Amino acid sequence: xxxxxxxxxxxxxxxxxxxxxxxxxxxxxxxxxxxxxxxxxxxxxxxxxxxxxxxxxxxxxxxxxxxxxxxxxxxxxxxxxxxxxxxxxxxxxxxxxxxxxxxxxxxxxxxxxxxxxxxxxxxxxxxxxxxxxxxxxxxxxxxxxxxxxxxxxxxxxxxxxxxxxxxxxxxxxxxxxxxxxxxxxxxxxxxxxxxxxxxxxxxxxxxxxxxxxxxxxxxxxxxxxxxxxxxxxxxxxxxxxxxxxxxxxxxxxxxxxxxxxxxxxxxxxxxxxxxxxxxxxxxxxxxxxxxxxxxxxxxxxxxxxxxxxxxxxxxxxxxxxxxxxxxxxxxxxxxxxxxxxxxxxxxxxxxxxxxxxxxxxxxxxxxxxxxxxxxxxxxxxxxxxxxxxxxxxxxxxxxxxxxxxxxxxxxxxxxxxxxxxxxxxxxxxxxxxxxxxxxxxxxxxxxxxxxxxxxxxxxxxxxxxxxxxxxxxxxxxxxxxxxxxxxxxxxxxxxxxxxxxxxxxxxxxxxxxxxxxxxxxxxxxxxxxxxxxxxxxxxxxxxxxxxxxxxxxxxxxxxxxxxxxxxxxxxxxxxxxxxxxxxxxxxxxxxxxxxxxxxxxxxxxxxxxxxxxxxxxxxxxxxxxxxxxxxxxxxxxxxxxxxxxxxxxxxxxxxxxxxxxxxxxxxxxx
Amino acid sequence: xxxxxxxxxxxxxxxxxxxxxxxxxxxxxxxxxxxxxxxxxxxxxxxxxxxxxxxxxxxxxxxxxxxxxxxxxxxxxxxxxxxxxxxxxxxxxxxxxxxxxxxxxxxxxxxxxxxxxxxxxxxxxxxxxxxxxxxxxxxxxxxxxxxxxxxxxxxxxxxxxxxxxxxxxxxxxxxxxxxxxxxxxxxxxxxxxxxxxxxxxxxxxxxxxxxxxxxxxxxxxxxxxxxxxxxxxxxxxxxxxxxxxxxxxxxxxxxxxxxxxxxxxxxxxxxxxxxxxxxxxxxxxxxxxxxxxxxxxxxxxxxxxxxxxxxxxxxxxxxxxxxxxxxxxxxxxxxxxxxxxxxxxxxxxxxxxxxxxxxxxxxxxxxxxxxxxxxxxxxxxxxxxxxxxxxxxxxxxxxxxxxxxxxxxxxxxxxxxxxxxxxxxxxxxxxxxxxxxxxxxxxxxxxxxxxxxxxxxxxxxxxxxxxxxxxxxxxxxxxxxxxxxxxxxxxxxxxxxxxxxxxxxxxxxxxxxxxxxxxxxxxxxxxxxxxxxxxxxxxxxxxxxxxxxxxxxxxxxxxxxxxxxxxxxxxxxxxxxxxxxxxxxxxxxxxxxxxxxxxxxxxxxxxxxxxxxxxxxxxxxxxxxxxxxxxxxxxxxxxxxxxxxxxxxxxxxxxxxxxxxxxxxxxxxx
Lengths: 670, 670
Description:
Chain A is an alpha/beta fold.
């Protein structure tokens, strides 16, 4: 009475195709393979607990959808199942920096065995197991024979989300955690307070959210839910309470913490604001002591982030009491005053048994060794921290709102070769963190800003440094992107839905074609051109296009292949088809743009698409036929491309580089 | 420092295009219009409470995204804003059958006024206001001048979701409630218990979910969250506890309630099962009394549904004690025994101050007048109930898993003309309910099974009976479908994501083309062909195609237009483009299907698509040119179409009718 699919023949001949991301430390093929069908069984051999059971169930649910094994499979005990999970012990229950995440996965002769020292290690191996599923002929699935020995290169592999500038509901956080687990990221850095919003309930200080959040905040119960959700996936949650700057939202309800008299309002604009805690009053530390005590109790992780970035000192300089305090205490600069503040709050954290993390501004000569420095301004801060004996994590290259392509950031290493660090110093570099700042992201757009690029960076954090082939990364990233969609992320479907809304119709093919070749401009350009604020609706074309869309790298590869051998028919045909599609989209795009007020700013890009398409067609036919273009064609085309590069507007073409190469080559045909 | 869009010129000239769904009772155009831009303001004039404020904020959030008015707009008091909301009083706080849902909406000369007697009435009007937003030239938005007087035709406009056979998480329920509110449905009928799962926490009887739910159930806290979410949208929540049949999941933990000794297991298979409560033991009623007391406390609605369907009486006949009881009490048939049971449980409901709803099997001559009959087997049960003095709601035509097109069900009326009812009897027909049974839907597929078809049926329940133009309904349904996506439903994006997963690639255009012309077979055919059960993964092509896809009606219209005037170039060109696309999809489809084991059963449909495309091309060119096809072409083509109609498989072509017409006409060209 169950599913009717017959048991497939024994698995003998499935060739391993490596689509794993991140790449494991060591992998070798092995004889045999494991058939996945409706007789599939799983057992837990040794140590077993609720967290391992739940992780195994989640894996089975995904396997069911992926490979058609039945739902509601019971997890057996013992060692006779198709997949045996053998874990030595629970490891730490609260995920920790010292977690042993290693695992060994063997698949051979219709059996698979996953061994790990800890439950978290087993979870990492389960993700790899799911990634190994392949088609087994036309009608079934299998896992090929492999022997994998895996562990991470860095212990701290994080993603920061700024929920202060735009609130992200729990559902967004949870699907992000699912994506993180799928690519073996292990730290969720939760940026909870900003000038524009205070997002975590404090029961001791209810006016923090009561007056500073627009009603958009996480209850403590929700925070506990998120922490448990993360822990179930072996992910740490490090909360950040940014101070002494970026604190306007605190001051709305508690102006007595501020360095100016107030009153304060929730900031709607972005950028660096003047509001700052008053570091000279004992009452500030008393407040923070109580607040940190409450939060230390809520967040079980051993680390707490206290920000420390972009405090401009203006309110301090303007306050005579603070000036007097600085003179009395021989504090010469506002920077030194911030160091004084950092040392005071670090002591508070110590009392509440937390290690402090701070942005690289906290790095001063007398910084306690206990403090972890998160570098957002450059790699050298990390090296400086290490030389000073402080641990560090790198974020500078991994700012998602810079809209860099995966290729641009993939090779950026937390341990850069240029810095001469001793082995001991290098060991202080704990890893890295991607940063998703919140100015321009809302729940329906945040996924495409993070994914799939985060998967490429996760590989940098997990895999050996020697894994650095960009083209192979893109090949696997395309597969990984769909896996991330299957765990619930909306980085593909969200932008598609946005395009439909803009087009006002399901018949939006022309707009999709445009969207396939543009990406959002970086944070700074959008901010300057649109004067964005928290009041700006995020509903334009820029909000429904993806950073580093697949066409960018695809076209680069096609052009490279075609220029290497312009008689290669397949590359030529594919290029022609792409350029034809751009030309063909013209009339449809015009019609959509004319009826859609929200597309007003995108009209120049839309008009340009056909021009680029014709340019591509001209270049390819010229090169294929060895026929020269009319005089001036190349220079005129290059001018067009230069103009397109230096345009104003909210979206950038991502295909100008390959077109330039094509035009350059076609211009040389004589 | 806010958004930079300039204030548009005063609104003077926006022509009303009616895309409202459901259509209001009365609508007239009025002079002037209201500009929507960054100076837009809203005020509440008279009665004001938290529920009205929250509803207004939700409207403003949607307006911000739709029409680029700023986020975080403050709601003013008084009557000087652009949109003034004027409500007389709160109405009932727990939404009720007697709610006054009427409203009046006037837009004229740069002002809009929404008047209602109750908060719920105002909510209905806000949905209409949002639907009125139009482009105002190329760069702005406006609401055209209108005068709308609106109220519903039927008081009970429901949607039932079966969460027993497949569990649907709270997030699915909540987005469904948002969709319901958008189309003015007002009853969420929550089918909570089934043979396959018991989905609501009982604190008195914890083994109900402890043993009968696979851990998939709603906590009471979640149920309260859903009830509050619904109430905030003016939607009643009517829980259903189906009995005496469909009760296996109760009996797993409490076998003493059953008519056979047990033990019982959660049913994995679908269909009518034998398990039934023992209606002859007082202990059964004692249990139900306590259970109903607990649930009556949890669910505030005045109505509670106790099922009553598909009890086959087999366990009763097989139990000598029950046979003896029937003899002793002169109960001749198992049907009469069920009536005895119904009367007993109806008394329990009365004691707990609830009215009973039951499926039409409960309709017996001595049914208490208090009971509402929900007809799932046919319209005449409703008429019978009315003649007997019982209220009724119609569901028979509105079974979403029958996969009928919106056109097929749109004209089905809760008050059918054929039945001769007095005015008083007709008044007993409260309305209707769509039914979404759970056998074949899971969270990622349920939306496309419900939407957008439910919007068409919602119009039947709300709008005057005279609103019955199918083509106009489809014109508006296309717009409504995108509005439903904007409120968070995934009926378009979900299937698209599913197709990508099946194709294993974002480059899935060929599969999308196939998906545009097929729909799922109905419940019965899928059940028979696939022998589905709760263990079946719902991950095939059938799970990622949509009932009544837009192409169905579109092609019908195009063919109709073309056959009426085959020299009409636009129709011909559009038809040719569609058929060309089918032909062109051939190679890509073959490649995708060959590498995707989950598409194995869809391969015959995939192969057929090009054949249909060529047939269409042949027919159109023959008709355009007045050139006859070779002998036998028409009869061979019709044979092909007949074969395609009578196929086996899980998806049906929805384009065979129009193709048949084309072939028929082309066959007559001499």
